User: Fold these one by one.
Assistant:
Number 1:
Amino acid sequence: MPDIKKVVLAYSGGLDTSVILKWLQDNYHCEVVTFTADIGQGGEVEPARAKAKKMGVKEIFIDDLREEFVRDYVFPMFRANAIYEGEYLLGTSIARPLIAKRQIEIARKTGADAVSHGATGKGNDQVRFELGYYALDPNIHVIAPWREWNLTSRETLLAYAKKHGIPVEMKKKGGSPYSMDANLLHISYEGRMLEDPSREPEASMWRWTVAPEKAPQRPEYLELEYERGDIVALNGKRLTPAKVLARLNQIAGRHGIGRLDLVENRYVGMKSRGCYETPGGSVMLKAHRAIESLTLDREVAHLKDDLMPRYAALIYNGYWWSPERKLLQTLIDASQANVNGSVRLKLYKGGITVVGRDSRRDSLFDTAIATFEDDQGAYNQADAGGFIRLNALRMRIAARLGAKKKR
């Protein structure tokens, strides 16, 4: 093993990173600095501090990054309406570049010569973390325990934790806990019975959302106000980005909104099954597309839709810090200059319905032209005939040629 003097570990206090902390101390004989990013996982933060102290860690960083996370990562992603493979709102993916950035900053501050993470050798997160590390510090040494040790399953991790007296949340007799990741945008679940794609998730697994059939019998209405493509107010009250998302999670969660059961294609090549809860994000996506429908030029909107799958894949695969993602972001952000106004939505038993949108300053919806009533000459319907004939020209030529060939 290389001679490592100090390593900064991305530490959640969960099973994997708790085992890794001890493993680094025993195998690299180095000082370990722990870094826990508070990006909305709530109750995990202080237990992580206590666990790290118990393991003899002297430098413990727990940073409240909630506002930075939503403002500088979640909101820019939602300006693009990013969805991976048609369904996944990228809740885990978008948190990794921020964690990697802060980890490198801490490494520089503490004089650490290495960084470490708890991502497995089968998953996407190892790629996301390490592409971030190398983009921000090309000379950093990376320790990825899952690619080095012989602890090859959740069961062996649990045995290791038991041997060393490491407490584990949700430990269940006869099986290991779900692998979970939580932040202000979502919570994800993998492992255990979810590894069988044919089985329905246990009702007790879900934490943020009620079952749609148990949601309130009456719908709830929301109004979101936008400035330059970002939400600035909820129901008339201006809120910070993190507070907007936290409040939307609460409201949408009680209406059973945001559950997803997905088999996705990982960047490393395999398919995996995961379940996600993204209540606030589901509302944000619906509302943002609604305000764009009123304020974006048709070709700009279609260009964004063409680019979105590529942009989403860049985030999913870990290329947030890449030049191509930054270039796309510049284009996307420029498109949002006139995305201003408000959207009204109805939430009811797992569903989100847009019931109104308004942009008095930037709306491209012209009632005088769009009306089915008398438009007072605003639109000459006779013009459509020439437009259609010109667009049909190539097909008419091809049809005539086909007819000649049949003679």
Number 2:
Amino acid sequence: MPERLFPARPLLLVDDEAAAIRGMRMALASSGIDHIVQCEDSREVMGLLAGGDVLLILLDLWMPHLPGQKLLEDICREHPDIPVIVVTGLGDLSVAVECMRAGACDYLVKPLEPERLIASVRRAMDLQELRSEVRTLQDSVVEGRLRHPEAFAGIITASERMRSLFRYAEAVAGTAHPVFVCGETGTGKELFVRAIHELSGRKGDFVSLNVAGVDDNVFADTLFGHIRGAFTGASHERAGLVERAAGGTLFLDEIGDLSEPSQVKLLRLLQEREYLPLGSDVARRSDARIIVATHRHLKELADAGRFRKDLYYRLAAHPVHLPPLSERRSDIPLLCEHFLTKACVELERARPRLPPGFLAQLQARNFPGNVRELETLIFDLVSRGGEGEGDPSRAVAPAGGFAGPHVRLAFPEVLPTLKESSRWLIEEALKRAGGNQSMAARWLGISQQSLNQRLLRWKRSGEAENTK
């Protein structure tokens, strides 16, 4: 497998002194930045920029032929999206000010301190990623549509809230920063993560690991691998998941259950882009993109001291919260139809006749297991060939006691009047139906016209009260 360079687009080093370029290359390589193009003749720079995709430029100020200040002006005019870091042996404040006004993003004085150089380059790279995200988000807001809807084909929805998350995923997919996906069990976190990987354009594999219940030693060996002789029984070297995910995406599910020692190891991987296989004292580089997911409230765990805050803030560079099914009830008919078709094909069964009121009861259900629970319910119905068609409660459990004839209601200490009870019941039905009057009327056993008349009377009486 050919060694991958980092970052994906090269840095251009412009300096007429070969020794200066060699020093910068060595300093950057120590931080894993090894995708470098160099130029010792300032007259060739504009041609290189016209023919290639350069991420950023390190530009010496004092060079023969074409002075660095003039070249800086040309670059900023012709290629304003490429950050330029000026490098010079002259620590003159007035020159530094002129360069910054011309468009340079930083000004470094020789001899260069490696830490200062690396920090400046990292900031410029982060700036480029941020610009790319902003441009993508601006395009999606203006256009109001997805550029790659096929990436989300596995997520059945008509929800505008979900579509806004899809647009956000398109914006951040191409960056190297981690993505943090949270949501209740069964909301489709892994499907969403796979869509981000597909959108990223990364050529490497999608590799996943559920870290729930994994102890520190197993986590380290699974993620980082080991060398021969690392422990008893380690007769040969074994690559870990980080190596398998090279150039691709490493997905860590249930990250909220990760142990403290394992959190430290993951933090180093994120900070340094390095890891140590078990038994080795030679660090290896990683360019895998990290995406994590959890059903737990990670911020609350961090605030309570049960999850490292520094790790949380690194992981949450791009946070995504997937809504539960209870907050996208309008998707239930779509999902029901999708799972019915899928179940009939996979189980090789004829499509059953749905019990009366089936969809209405589905939309009233709380679904603590979310989309996964709905899928299981539909598959169970199809596997039984529609058995229990005349008894909807057998096909679908009532939601919170709302639809069952044998439910005992809980009343407050002071009993409400019939008028108050009627109003509360109608308000609850409309809430569960997502404002759908036809559905609420069916649940209440009245006509939609009757329900509409009651709502109009309440509205008129409310307006009358306001005019007094």
